[in-house]
Design a protein that fits this description.
Elements lengths: L2 E5 H14 L5 E5 L1 H6 L2 H11 L3 E4 L2 H9 L6 E3 L7 H6 L3 E4 L2 H13 L5 E6 L14 H7 L5 E7 L12 H19 L6 E3 L3 H6 L7 E4 L10 H4 L6 E6 L2 E5 L4 E2 L5 E2 L4 E6 L17 E4 L2 E6 L7 E4 L10 E5 L5 H7 L4 H6 L6 E5 L1
Parallel strand pairs: 1-19, 2-3, 2-9, 3-4, 4-5, 5-6, 6-7, 7-8
Antiparallel strand pairs: 1-10, 10-18, 11-14, 12-13, 14-17, 15-16, 16-17
Length: about 350
């Protein structure tokens, strides 16, 4: 009925494209959080492992635990570990990114209680995104904590707030300068300096000179880098398709959908599709903002998107019940479709519901 087809060969292409943007010694962290951005975390992660990715990264412990249970063995970073899941994180041999005093001290307490030494951890600094992370002013305290042999500091990192912004960017410049200071400080007090990383997908294309030891890539592996010129080098990996459930005739002046969402200006042919806001196609795509492709032609979404269904105008399209409908793919991409609803590719693909069948192909 509804399918999201994942192309493994396009993952290969995108990974190799990223590899070409960076130095041979620079490591890649493959970000597979949120079910690999709404696709399939285990298939995505397994392919990255085959390609030789150095690290995987997830948002929360449960995501990493799931990958471990399915046989993934390479290092997995947990970006946002929570206090109530630290024991689980430890049991699954996941590597926490420590971002404030509470989480650092909580994890330290567990390691000391279990008499575990040299456990790999990562330190996140807030240099301007103002989301999570130690402030640069806390770096002395952090370094003091890292002297405890329960920790093995693997990497120090931060996150650019606007890595896709046109250069020069005053905010990015400020963040880079702060991170340089942190890099010097952490390198000078350690016999074994940690790795450093700052760049996400957009940053790889926009600030390659600041790639440091590692880069973190998620959305770029899915075919998007937040700029048309960069996107042109990549291939979208997912195709979302559905089919026509019913076609019916609506007379001029009659209404379609909840709350009289759309009134037919003329005798109109309407097709109903089995996708709705419960599946990730939000109401913001209704009222002719979004459109789908049926037999090579655009069909606008009319009225309000329902929970399980939506309606499109197919008056000018030769089609019948059961015909395939493409929401997005390699040509009309998820980014293009998302823009129709004033959204972004991240929000669209990560919001696709579990009722949509995931299909994996080479």
């Amino acid at each position: 009925m509804n399918t999201l087809t994942l192309s493994l060969s396009n993952i290969d292409h995108n990974y190799n494209c990223i590899r070409e943007q960076i130095n041979a010694t620079t490591q890649i962290i493959g970000v597979v959080k949120a079910n690999a951005y709404g696709s399939s975390s285990i298939h995505f992660a397994s392919r990255l492992v085959e390609l030789g990715v150095d690290y995987l990264a997830v948002a929360y412990t449960e995501e990493g635990q799931q990958l471990r249970s399915q046989g993934v063995k390479i290092p997995i970073m947990v970006f946002y570990p929570q206090l109530d899941a630290l024991d689980t994180l430890l049991d699954a041999c996941l590597e926490p990114c420590l971002y404030n005093e509470t989480i650092l001290e909580g994890f330290k307490k567990i390691l000391l209680e279990k008499k575990i030494s040299h456990y790999p951890v990562h330190i996140k600094y807030n240099t301007g995104l103002n989301r999570l992370g130690f402030t640069p002013d806390q770096s002395d305290w952090v370094l003091e904590q890292m002297k405890n042999n329960c920790f093995q500091l693997e990497s120090v990192y931060s996150h650019l707030a606007a890595s896709e912004a046109k250069r020069p960017s005053a905010l990015c410049k400020s963040q880079i300068e702060l991170f340089e200071i942190l890099k010097i400080k952490h390198s000078s007090v350690s016999n074994q300096p940690p790795k450093f990383h700052l760049l996400n997908s957009s940053g790889v294309f926009n600030y390659p000179e600041h790639q440091y030891d590692m880069v973190r890539c998620g959305i770029a592996l899915h075919g998007f880098a937040n700029h048309p010129d960069w996107d042109a080098h990549l291939k979208p990996i997912c195709v979302l398709e559905s089919s026509i459930t019913q076609i019916h005739q609506v007379k001029k002046g009659n209404f379609v959908g909840y709350d009289h969402g759309w009134q037919a200006p003329q005798n109109t042919q309407i097709a109903t599709l089995p996708l709705g806001h419960a599946d990730g196609i939000g109401r913001h795509f209704g009222h002719h903002k979004g459109s789908v492709m049926i037999n090579g032609k655009k069909a606008p979404i009319v009225g309000n998107v329902c929970m399980d269904l939506l309606m499109v105008d197919v008056t000018s399209i030769d089609c019948e019940e059961g015909d395939k409908v493409k929401f997005f793919g390699e040509l009309n991409t998820a980014s293009t479709f998302a823009l129709q609803g004033n959204s972004i590719s991240y929000e669209l693909i990560t919001g696709l519901g579990s009722r949509i069948k995931r299909i994996v192909k080479e």
